Amino acid sequence: MRHIPPGRGYVEYALHAGKIKHESGIHTVRTGYNTCCSLRIEAIRSVQTTGRDHCMKTIRLLELSPKELSRRVAKKPLLLIPIGTVEWHADHLPLGVDSLLSVAICEEISLRTGCVVAPLISSGVCRDLQPKRGYVGTVDTIREKTLTNLVADLLQGYAKMGFQKAILFSGHFEMEHFSAIIEGIKKAPSIQGEFMTALNFLQGRVKELEDVTLTWPYAGDHAAEWETSLMLEYYPDLVHMEHAPETIELDMAGLPEYIRKRYPRRASRGYGRKLRRAIIAAGVAMVRKVLG
User: Fold this and answer.
1) Largest CA distance in the chain
2) Are the C-beta atoms of residues 138 and 87 closer than 8 Å to each other?
3) Nearest to residue 224, comparing CAs of 244, 243, 210, 253?
4) Predicted confidence (pLDDT) per residue in 90-147, tens digit
5) Looking at the predicted structure, is the pLDDT value of residue 49 above 60?
6) What is the distance between the alpha carbons of residues 102 and 81, in angstroms, rounded to a whole number?
7) What is the C-alpha separation between 205 and 219, in angstroms, rounded?
8) Is-contact 37 104, C-beta < 8 A?
9) By the 8 A CB rule, do 152 and 54 touch?
10) How far apart are CA 62 and CA 277, in angstroms?
11) Of 14, 116, 121, 214, whose CB neighbour count within 10 A is largest?
């Protein structure tokens, strides 16, 4: 996660990232805050999937034949691309939290919209939680230009398949990571790219409170009540609450006070379900908007 100039409140901090926007030709970039277990996604597909959004099947690019790909693209020329990292998330969560959640969210949106989900890009940029500082398991060796070139090359390949638009959804929140993806989208003008995180979908729901020790509804964090609750909802068998620390304390420059110290033991599956429903409902609405 990271990191905007210091002195910002949480909402201002989060929305600052949302101001990074580039529009030129046919590509657009939007940012905001911030695999895998397909059986779990299929198991929850009947939850809140009624009406015209309910397509009853996650559509994964890797599972399509050429003919089925052509048929899907002709019907819905928008591709969902999950992006994550391999990064330390304390002892109670797996290293793939950002990757796992980005895939879970994209696959559930696919269930409701009929859009195709691309394979996960797990090579995100991590600069903050480095192994040499004790954050064991973080891959901090991915360079920005590596991710930029990968995003650009993949987007151009997907454009050749016939996709006209793509939503690149990141479960990782770090400005260098954002910038690398944005540059990749700029280098692939043959497809319209939209970069988003869950915070795009939760804008307007977060309420700053005077007491930063309270859990602010819908406010993001790293490995604490927000991420842990979502993991309890999507991947409960990968969460080990008995190993959850009392607090997660981060010292990176520029973090708002709320994110600096959070409380993972407050996490619950009920809160995770609340977050999931809000994220998916807004994500489905965004896909409709992008599709036109």
Assistant:
1) 56
2) yes
3) 244
4) 999 999 999 999 999 999 999 999 999 999 999 999 999 999 999 999 999 999 999 9
5) no
6) 9
7) 8
8) yes
9) no
10) 26
11) 116
166 φ, ψ (degrees, to nearest 5): -150, 140
Tell me the one-letter amino acid at 16.
H
Burial class (CB in 10 A: 0-12, 13-18, 19+), 28: middle
Which string of DSSP letters, residue by residue, matches the chain?
Answer: ----STT--HHHHHHHHHT--EEETTEEE--------HHHHHHHTTTT--GGG---S-EEGGG--HHHHHHHHHH--EEEEEE------TTTS-TTHHHHHHHHHHHHHHHHH--EEPPPB------SS-GGGT-TT------HHHHHHHHHHHHHHHHHTT--EEEEEES---HHHHHHHHHHHHT-TTSEEEEEEHHHHHTTT----S-TTS--TT---SSSHHHHHHHHHH-GGG--GGG--S-EE---TT--HHHHEE-GGG--HHHHHHHHHHHHHHHHHHHHHHH-
Q: Say if pTM beats, i.e. exceeds, 0.70.
A: yes
Token pair belonging to 96: 């793939």
The candidate with the shortest Cα–Cα distance to 218, out of 248, 193, 198, 240, is 198
- 261-262 and 248-249 as β-strands: parallel, antiparallel, unpaired? antiparallel
